[in-house]
Amino acid sequence: MKRKLLFLLFIALGKTVLAQDALQNTGNLQIHTGASITGFGAFTNASSGVLINNGSYYMKGNLTNEQASMAAGSGTLYLDGNSAQTVGGSQPFKTYHFNTNNSSGISLNTNFSVSGLHTFTNGLIATSSTPNYLIYEAGSSHTGVGDSRHVNGWVKKYGITNFTFPVGDATYQRTIAISNLSATSEFNCRYYVATQNIFNLLSPVVQVKANEYWQLDKISGGTAQIILNWDHSKVPMDNVLLTDILAAPYSGGNWIDGGGATTATGVVTTTGSVTSSARSTFGAITLGYETFPVPLKLISFTAERRQGTSTLHWITENEQSVSHFDVQRSYDAVNYSTIGNVAARNRSQQENYFFDDRSPLKGFAWFRIRSIDIDGKFSYTRIAVVSENDLQSNSFVVLNPVRDAVTVFNKTGRDGLFDYSLYNSGGQLIMKGNVGMTSNGGAALTLPSQIAAGIYILELRNDKTQFRQKVLVER
Fold it and tell me: Does 396-473 match 297-387 at the fold level?
């Protein structure tokens, strides 16, 4: 009792009290204006206790409250522990100002009420699945919310003022806001990362955002508008026109048109928002579209060999949710390896990409581009093939153009058995084999009957000779 009276005396005099022990309050504990308590390992406010904080209370341990009808006071509670902290007990814990500064996180196992300003300094807040709520009373607000500083769980808001719910999924903060409330209201909100029943749609909604939604429940009150947002860098946004984006609440078993006070604003490939019309009914809500998203369009891919460098060029349009492009090379048109990558720009307009490969060539090199989406899915471009130059010299003569067969004359000055290969312009092997030719003799290489008209590359070689030339096939 002596220790407790001394402790209270320091508080009454406005002094700072330092301690590391756990504290249980069973009496009347008041922290006066200008007074500060810091360092307690844990604090329990018993059912017989009365706690009023009008000063500063720094807590590094767990909080437990059993006091019914706790007063919020006018002071600030700081949860700034070095390890994970919990707030529990059978009764809600109440404070005026609130400062959360714990990188290890804070878990709410009972309702926690803020009447003034909540400052997110560091760390996440998680609410239990009971559920328990981080409650913002009428007139309260928050600041500092971010990816590492938000609520992963349920948030409750009382009042009539506009409010942004500081929710997310413990990786990204993904807020949602209410505005223009017609009456004092009570709302509950939580964020989810996978949209349910995405094929239950009511016209004019043809598709909804499948990778996130918010559960926004009205417990009491009037009408309000809902402000939804997207951030493509965090949760990929679908590639649609701004004019086709709307707020889509889930009602009657379908995602419906929640109306739009104005056209969505922002840029689809970066950030933006849309505001619903005034609503009286609430529940699950996400972004909806009146047209289908436009997928990535690869317009062209070419490769050209100049002065010892293979220059690759590809053009895209309507990029959406693309992470990067892998540049892949092969020396046999079968086995490919990645030799570099280029970051995607994710813009809706036409984009030009270039990549230079300065590796020396002996014969041909085949290239392709692998497009990698943010979710890990990928696709390939067509294949392009390059060589240093046609190695014609005076080894062979090839008659051009050709129809059913390629006629070749041997000008090497020697008899020999030669391997031959024919590739299309995309680097695909069309036929191969070997043929014997005498000096100054010739051979006819019969083409496949289904071969299409176009430019092909013929290669002839043995251990002494290598020859390469373009061939025009006409039909």
Answer: yes
**Which residue shows structure tokens 């996978």?**
194
**CATH 2.60.40.10 is held by the domain 297-387:** yes
C-alpha to C-alpha distance for 25 and 17, rounded to whole angstroms: 15
* Sequence-ordered list of residues with C-beta below 8 angstroms from that of 436, at least 6 positions apart, any chain: 415, 416, 417, 418, 443
Nearest to 384 by CA among 417, 424, 413: 424
Residue whose structure tokens are 């609520």: 151
In order of 101, 111, 136, 173, 198, the CA distances from 145 in angstroms are 12, 20, 14, 7, 29
Question: Token digits for 234?
Answer: 């965090």
* pLDDT mean by block of 10 residues, the chain; 475 residues: 39 46 88 86 93 95 96 97 95 98 97 98 94 97 97 98 98 97 98 94 93 97 97 85 93 89 81 94 96 75 86 86 90 86 84 93 84 82 72 72 89 85 82 89 90 86 80 83
Domain ranges of the chain: 2-289, 297-387, 396-473
CA–CA separation, 118 vs 182, rounded Å?
A: 25
CB-CB contact of 426 with 384 (8 Å): yes
